[in-house]
Amino acid sequence: MSNGLIQGLAAYFLWPGLLAGALLGWLYLWLSRALIARMQRRFGPPFYQPFFDFVKLLGKRSMVPAGTAPLLYYGLPLAAVISITLALAVMPLPGGLNASFTGDLILVLYLMEMPAFCDILAGFASRSIYGQVGSSREAALILGYSLPFIAAVSALAIQADSFRMVDVLALPFGPVHVLAAAAFILAVPARLKSNPFSIPNAEQEIVAGPHVEYNGPALALFELAHGLEFVAVGALFSVLFIPRLPSAGLNLVLYLAAGLLLVLITSVLAAATARLQIHRAFRFYWTWGALAALGCVVLAALL
Amino acid sequence: MNETLRIQIEQIAGAAWEQRSEHELWLQAPAVDVRAAAQALLAAEARLSTMTALALPNGETEVIYHWICGKQGLHIKTCTQGNHLPTITPITAAANWIEREIMDLYAVVFDGHPDPKPLLRPSKLTAGYYREPGGAAGKAARGEMV
Amino acid sequence: MPFRIPIGPYHPALEEPYKLSIQSRGEIVEDVTIEVGFVHRGIELLAQRRNYIQDLVLVERVCGICSNIHTLTFCMAAEEIAGMQVPDRARFIRTIMAELERLHSHLLWAGIGSEDIGFQTMFMEIYALREQVMDVLEAISGNRVNYAMNCIGGVNRDITDPEGVLRAVRSIREGIQKTVIPIFTQNRTILGRTRGVGILTRDEAVTYGVVGPIARASGLAIDVRQDFPYAAYEDLGFQIVTQDSCDVTARVVVRALEMLESCRLIEKALLELPGGPIRPSELVTVVPPGETMMRVEAPRGEVVYYLKSDGSDTPARVKIRTPSDLNLPAIRAMARGQALGDMAIIQASVDPCCSCTDR
Question: Helix, strand or coil for residue C76?
């Protein structure tokens, strides 16, 4: 077997891909739950809880709703996990693959949207009215948060004049980074469907939204994809906005710190807010999100 | 309650009010036109508080309309004819569930009710399952010591 | 595309089983049908098979939240027929219990309302505060839910430590003033979810005959404590709370200000608590013949009892009308034209009590 293939497999399955991503994702999910619990005068779960949840769900017998093709039912969460892991694997993280090619940034953006698309399809495929309403809300929300998210990434790409992540990484740190980072962070709570943008899975209205008919291993995979999404968003943030240091060890610390920062921001926000209705969430992103998007793209074009 | 409403209801009912306490007026009127009374009371800004049904030994049902007009409770007692009464739901929406409940529990038919579905009654039971004597009569019927 | 979406009988937004079938076009609600009867227990029928002492235990179980109100109304009806005078100390203790119950019920509602708009932190805060009220209720009556405080002619237990209760009520009032009211009136995400949502106009409120905080939030000054004063409300000087904006915010504000008024009434009642007996020396088992109608203001609105006695130890008829009976159908008027996402908070703003409605 060639060296490249082994390296590729290691990047996909070990670091920074599936294994490291899953462990880190469970850590982030736990930290978010524990932080929110502390802010609500609760104790919160022990650190291994997300892992136990995953194992427990894997061991459950699953029921495919009548009228849904089993291939679709199991395929969608699997596709979500596979694509978000691939996104993690191709990111230029310390100790990672470092295989760079033109347009890898676009590939990462596309792969990172996959879990959301799988969610939407799963909601419609489950034939539950709650799932369908949740899916249509999630689709609307994607239109909202994608604006600042894509604009933040594009602004840096414009400045670097390239859609290669290595080139973006090499950019000298400047004002565009600050503004683009703000736009990026604006999009994060909705990406992770945490409060106040948790309307697609608002349990008090539509039970569990797109996941309402999911159970057992299929739900475990969706939960895993959610954890990996958390890690991927943190990884992209550190790749784009955190200046690289010469030491690989320090870079690793910064990579973890970026993830923890996002966990902290989303948890505090989630604990301090009520859930916004879909039209308000949409309006928020099409005013403040649009302003931030416009700001960073214009600034990038001018500088 | 103003004097005109008082007299108006007495004319509709063909009976006189009985003052039972400071705030409560009762009216015994077996043949009252409940719809006309409801219209007169609503025009005077009264609201329907509830309706009470009591099974009578002769198989008919006594129905009391409890109205509130400001700080005055008005209770109009009427009696069904063959367990039928005209509905007042089209006049006041508040009567909708109250009448449906009495249909379930006492098998009184409110003629012209727009939505006569069971409200509380489980499908296994037939309407009128509350029609049993209470108090001493009930105890005697059940063979308990009075 | 029009579709029907069910909320209930089992749904995360509901504490009790009832069913809302929402007819909606996209995210806009066109019509709602409401079904109840899932926890129908036949309490009225059972009540006319049992004696007055047993009935007190029975009617306490009509509702798990406002249990005290039901025994209070039942006792007051029996006392009215028997022409009994209740000792002053018992009247004051009844008022204190009723207002403590209102505090815990309104706090429970505020917690569930926060949960329904996805604000879990607020839910935890409010429930921590509610726990203090439950502690006071337990200290007085020995029970957390069914207090068994009322008997025909008086109350079963005395308040032996008025200073302790006073201290607790003052700390609860501080909690309401410093956390609950500011967050509900200032947090932008909460206001975004409640202002202008679930309008029930004054005319609709009259048509549906709604009672309690719903009526007062639609500008109707209806309150049994003011219109037909009972227990010690006349001595304490009750002040009614109304709002005119007719939306969910108005219902929140009415309940919040009512909690402050409850704290004031409890404090005043404790300070002016008269001495003397708390119940007649002889247990009342038989009520003379007669009929009466008794109204009491429960946390959710007017509770009505009709009691008919034939002179035996068993009532001839007990009719119970709870506030949710009249308030629940009004959800239909509130829901039309609203966003689907607001249905959870709209139905919760009514504070529906289904075991009350079903009895």
Answer: helix
How far apart are alpha carbons A196 and C119 in whole angstroms? Answer: 9
Q: Please compute the mean of the pLDDT values over residues A6-10 and round it to a whole number.
A: 83
Q: Are C68 and C56 in contact (CB under 8 A)?
A: no
Half-sphere exposure of C12 (CA within 13 A, CB side): 15
Inform me whether the C-beta atom of residue B112 falls under 8 Å from chain C C-beta atoms: no
**Which residues, in sequence order, are bridge partners of residue C355?**
none
- What DSSP state is assigned to residue A289? I
Neighbours of B98 (CB within 10 A): 26
Question: ω into residue A175 within 30 of 0, thus cis?
Answer: no
Contact assignment for B139 to C209 by CB distance below 8 Å: no
Q: Give the nearest chain B residue to C52 (CA atoms).
A: B135
Q: For chain B, which residues make up each domain, given as ranges?
A: 3-141
pLDDT surpasses 60 at A1: no
Exposed/middle/buried for B144, CB within 10 Å: 0-12, 13-18, 19+? exposed
Tokens of C7: 């909320």
Q: Which of residues 130-169 of C touch A (CB under 8 A)?
A: none
Cβ-Cβ pairs closer than 8 A, B with C, add up to 110
Structure token digits, residue A215: 């159970």
How much is the pLDDT for A82? 93
CB A202 within 8 Å of CB A167 = no
Q: Which residue of C has its CA nearest to B129?
A: C45
Distance from CA of B39 to the nearest CA of C (A): 12
Query: Would you say C353 is a known binding-site residue?
Result: yes
Backbone CA torsion sign across A151, A153, A156, A157: negative
Task: For chain C, list the domains and their CATH numbers.
Answer: 40-325 (1.10.645.10)
Judged by a CB distance cut-off of 8 A, whether residue C203 touches chain B is no
Q: Two tokens at A39?
A: 């802010």
d(CA C191, CA C248): 9
The mean pLDDT value of chain B amounts to 85
Q: How many residue pairs bridge chain A and chain C with CB atoms within 8 Å of each other?
A: 81
Is residue C151 marked as binding?
Answer: no
Q: Shortest CA distance to A157 belongs to which of A124, A201, A109, A213? A: A109
Contacts of C36 in chain B (CB under 8 A): 119-120
Instruction: Determine if residue C246 is labeled as part of a ligand binding site.
Output: no
pLDDT band at B81 (very low <50, low <70, confident <90, very high): confident
pLDDT for B1 equals 59
Would you say C302 is a known binding-site residue?
Answer: no
> Are the Cβ atoms of A276 and C189 closer than 8 angstroms?
yes
**Token digits for B122?**
């489980």
Give the mean pLDDT of B22-40. 84
The CATH architecture to which B3-141 belongs is: 2-Layer Sandwich (3.30)
Looking at per-residue pLDDT, the higher value among A173 and C91 belongs to C91
Residue A6's φ and ψ, nearest 5 degrees, are -60, -45
pLDDT reading at B11 higher than 80: no
At B16, the amino acid letter reads A
> For each successive 10 residues of chain C (359 residues), what is the average pLDDT?
79 82 84 88 90 91 88 92 89 92 91 84 88 91 89 88 89 88 81 84 86 90 87 86 88 90 91 86 86 90 91 90 89 86 84 84
Please answer yes or no on whether C48 and B48 come within 8 Å at the CB atom.
no
Q: Cα A59 from chain centroid? A: 26
Distance from C-alpha of C70 to C-alpha of C42, rounded to nearest angstrom:
15
> For A194, which residue in chain C has the nearest alpha carbon?
C118
- Contact partners, residue A82, CB within 8 Å, separation at least 6: none
Q: pLDDT tens, A157-171?
A: 888 888 888 888 888
Chain C residue numbers with beta carbons less than 8 Å from the beta carbon of B142 are 49
Closest CA to A294 of A108, A187, A150: A150
Q: Which residue of C has its CA nearest to A278?
A: C341
